[in-house]
Amino acid sequence: MGLLCQTVVRHLGASMTAVIYNFDRSSEGGPIDETERLVSALGRYTSAELLELLYVGEEPGFFELIRGLFSLSDESRLILQNFLAAVPVQGVAASIDRQGRCVLTPEPSSHLRNPA
User: Fold this and answer.
1) DSSP 45-103
2) Mean pLDDT over residues 63-90, rounded?
3) Euclidean distance between CA atoms 38 and 88, whole angstroms
4) Are 98 and 34 in contact (CB under 8 A)?
5) H or E element at residue 34
6) Average pLDDT over residues 93-106
């Protein structure tokens, strides 16, 4: 059903794995094959993960954002992932500088901005 590709990013000490599916299924059966494929994929996730995916998938621009993330090189995606994992969930500001670069900056924690 799919190819498994593994890339090791040596200088960052991380290993990434990707599953590449054959989307040309013109020679295969039909709805049953698609149903089996979906059920098989769903079995790899918890109910909480699937519900979260359903929830965030409703956000405007979600699929475009995900496609953009996966168009990054493995190294760039790992750097972004590590940056986002190191800051609080709601604590990142994004801007475009004069050179057209996207700049991500950790925001000060909300309790420092709003002393109550």
Assistant:
1) S-HHHHHHHHHHHTSTTHHHHHHHHHTS-HHHHHHHHHHHHHS-TT-EEEEE-TTS-EE
2) 89
3) 33
4) no
5) helix 31-42
6) 91
